[in-house]
Amino acid sequence: MPQTKSSVFSIKSTYVLPTTHRHEYSKTPTSSSTIQIIVPPNQNNNNVRRSANYQPSTWRYEDIQSLTTQYGEESYVEEREGLKEEVRMMISKMEDNERLQLELIDALQKLGVASHFMVEISGILQNVYTNNQNQNDLYATALQFRLLRQHGYHVSSEIFRRFQDDEGEFNNTQELWKDIEGMVELYEASFHGMEGESILDEATHFCSNLLKEYVDEKKKKEMKNERSVELVSQALEIPLHWRVPRLESIWYIQFYQKEDQKKSAIITPALLQLAKLDFNIVQATHQQDLKHISR
Fold first, then answer.
1. Least confident of 11-15, 18-22, 26-30, 254-258
2. Are 227 and 255 contacting, i.e. CB atoms less than 8 angstroms apart?
3. Alpha helix (H) ranges present in 179-263?
4. Three-class DSSP category at 221
5. Which among 104, 106, 114, 110 has a CA at the least distance from the CA of 84?
6. What does the pLDDT read at residue 167?
7. Three-state secondary structure string covering 106-122
8. Cα separation values, 31 from 9, 24, 161, 203, 229, Å
9. Sequence ranges of the domains in the chain
10. Where is the Terpene synthase N-terminal domain (predicted)?
11. Whether the Cβ atoms of residue 183 and residue 137 lie closer than 8 Å to each other
12. Which of 33, 77, 160, 186 could form a disulfide with 142, with the two C-beta atoms 3.0–4.6 Å apart?
């Protein structure tokens, strides 16, 4: 094959190379200077550089720089700190109730504020794992399993055997139809399985079929706006384990707002306000980052 000479292109520079405190340049390129770029030999002269056909951004520089938010102010950060202390007091009051502790951890994660309470969460889960106390019902068993697996604890999936019959099938009984929250928890827990854990594969198949039947029945009765139907539909669309936590927190903030917060031991006004405020403060930080990197 004949030797091909390297191509040389001259490109007129249209920019000024910025200087920093670490470097000094004897000459700054101007519009009249040229830059030589050496292009490697092309073995096939018929090759054409491919283009991805990227479209121009819909966000103009002026649009990005005009982003403003009030949640970057120090007063909101101070308010968040006060709400965090209120939630810590909630956690300490649940010291003797393992089930409520697990439900609160689940709520903190779904609302996107668990990162503020990792010390408390780690302590609770360590105690739960050490005590190795079996929960009484499907909901609590699946919730405990999911949270422990999610945080790296080795928990055997055999704990779900007691919800199966003698033939190794999950009991499709009327009681399970009543425990829809338990079925949702078992469905979510099944996505934390490891290779070879067939019982969790069976749980995924069993729960998905039963939950789809439940949603269809409710829709026939024109009851699709019930909270339980919303919760089931959300789980069936994409499992919690596959979702982006920060984006998912928006849905759960709106979902928990529909609860009677005066009767709930978990979803209190302070916790919901903390979730909203934290989301807005984090979003304000991202907006400032975006403005900075676009300059």
1. 11-15
2. yes
3. 180-189, 198-220, 227-237, 245-256
4. coil
5. 114
6. 78
7. HHHHHCCCHHHHHHHHH
8. 16, 20, 76, 68, 65
9. 70-291
10. 61-236
11. no
12. 186
Mean pLDDT of 181-209: 94
Residue 295's CB: how many other CB atoms inside 10 A? 7
How does DSSP classify residue 64? H
Q: What is the b/e burial string over 93-109, where b = at least 16 CB atoms within 10 angstroms of the residue's CB?
A: ebeeebebbbbbbbbbb
Cβ atoms of residues 161 and 187 within 8 Å: no
Q: What is the pLDDT of residue 101?
A: 96
Radius of gyration of the chain (CA): 28
In order of 44, 54, 70, 156, 232, the CA distances from 50 in angstroms are 14, 12, 45, 52, 46
Element (H, E) at 273: helix 269-293
Sign (positive or negative) of CA dihedral 54, 59, 62, 66: negative
Q: Which amino acid belongs to residue 88?
A: R
Residue with tokens 């302590």: 123
Nearest CA among 120, 186, 126 for reference residue 157: 186
Distance, in Å, from the CA atom of 135 to the CA atom of 141, rounded to the nearest integer, reads 5
pLDDT of residue 133: 77
| pLDDT tens for each residue of 100-126 | 999 999 999 999 999 999 999 999 999
Q: CA nearest 238: which of 166, 285, 187?
A: 187
Report yes or no: 233 and 212 within 8 Å, Cβ to Cβ: no
The angle, 0 to 180 degrees and rounded to 10, between the axes of the packed helices 138-150 and 180-189 is 30
d(CA 129, CA 6): 66
List Cβ neighbours of 295 (8 Å cut-off, separation of 6 or more).
Answer: 65
